[in-house]
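Changelog-adjacent note: as of this version, every example in the card shows the full chain rather than a window. The one below runs 110 residues end to end.
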Amino acid sequence: MKYDISDNDLFTVIQVQESRFDAKLATSFRSTIEEIQADIKPNLLLDISEVTFMDSSGLGAIMAVYKMLRDKQIAVVGAKKPVRELFKLTRMDRLIKTYDTVEDAVATSV
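Full-length structure tokens:
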């Protein structure tokens, strides 16, 4: 999985640098989060602005991370319209907030 991580005192931002978030990516995504779990700040922002396609495996991976990091606030930023609609259709948007940009998420303190 190609990604970039940045953080400050309150936020860890993981920018997924892939166009497809599917079964192929889901396993490595979960593994990556498990590896860095101890270093994640109180708020995790998943920047998926480069993702143009997500399937149920991608959704499942994000939900697994949500459960894994119960003590943290998680939000998704930059979701394209089809991905945002998938979040609404599956009602994941009720559990995981979505924002247009990292700045929007930070401004509302997740």
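Structural remarks: Helices lie at 23-36, 56-68, 81-89, 102-107.
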